[in-house]
Write a structure and sequence with these properties.
Blueprint: E1 2-5, H1 12-25, E2 29-32, H2 43-51, E3 56-58, H3 62-68, H4 78-88, H5 90-97, E4 102-106, E5 109-112, H6 131-134, E6 142-144, E7 152-155, E8 162-165, E9 179-184, E10 190-195, H7 201-210, H8 217-225
Parallel strand pairs: 1-2, 2-3, 5-6, 6-8
Antiparallel strand pairs: 1-9, 4-5, 7-8, 9-10
């Protein structure tokens, strides 16, 4: 059984809750699906915890790419990438940036961060107009991905491909503060899981670490409300 871990975003408390639950479920291997450190209060400790997993497959997210190349990030995000780079150190930043963009999980299943087209373009719970473009040329029967921080599973609008988003461990966007991840069972079944933890401690830790840094407003809102933007 494999744990599918995406979008931790430097939230060590959420990650530890998920890893404890995964151990209780009998998980043997892990997929680390990208966006491990950026925006959170514990970037280096989060990476270290994941590096301690003995059997883990890693892929790169846009967070790792942006931290290595801030000019590629949207301008408002660049101060946050600078903070993450300082915390992690240039060597580790480059190591994370060198991760592969996708990985085969066997049995016709492939993992990406966003989609086969881009690490910042992904699938939504309901089909969008660009779904055919995102799936052009895909021969896998199932795709695992994150980026949107919204857990769901459905069949694609074209090609009958199973689309699975495990959700975000550290920064959910569905209004539910609980950490989200998924289990890929040995029989191929996907099980979404939500794990409670002390989520209120995360924005407090972010303020304590970075004070009044101008880039904090967005991450603070997201950690506090479990939403991308105000409703």
């Amino acid at each position: 059984m494999q744990a599918l871990i995406y979008d931790v975003h430097g939230n060590l408390l959420a990650l530890d809750a998920v890893l404890a639950d995964a151990a209780e479920q009998g998980v043997e291997t892990y997929l680390v699906g990208g966006d491990v450190a950026l925006f959170g209060p514990w970037p280096e400790a989060t990476v270290a915890r994941l590096q301690g997993l003995e059997r883990a497959t890693w892929i790169r997210g846009n967070g790792e790419r942006w931290t290595a190349d801030p000019d590629a990030a949207p301008e408002p995000v660049r101060p946050a990438t600078a903070a993450a780079r300082e915390a992690l150190g240039a060597e580790l930043v480059d190591e994370l940036n060198a991760l592969p963009q996708s990985a085969s999980l066997g049995d016709g299943t492939r993992a990406w961060h966003g989609s086969p087209v881009s690490d910042v373009r992904s699938f939504m719970p309901e089909p969008a107009d660009d779904e055919a473009e995102l799936l052009d040329g895909v021969t896998d029967r199932r795709l695992i991905f994150g980026h949107t921080h919204l857990p769901f599973a459905r069949t694609s609008s074209v090609g009958q491909i199973e689309l699975v988003n495990p959700g975000s461990v550290g920064m959910p966007f569905d209004g539910d503060h609980r950490a989200a991840y998924a289990l890929l069972h040995d029989d191929g079944r996907i099980e979404h899981r939500r794990i409670g933890y002390d989520h209120a401690a995360v924005p407090a830790a972010l303020r304590e670490r970075y004070g009044d840094a101008g880039w904090l407003a967005g991450p603070l809102h997201r950690f506090t409300h479990a939403r991308l933007e105000s409703a």
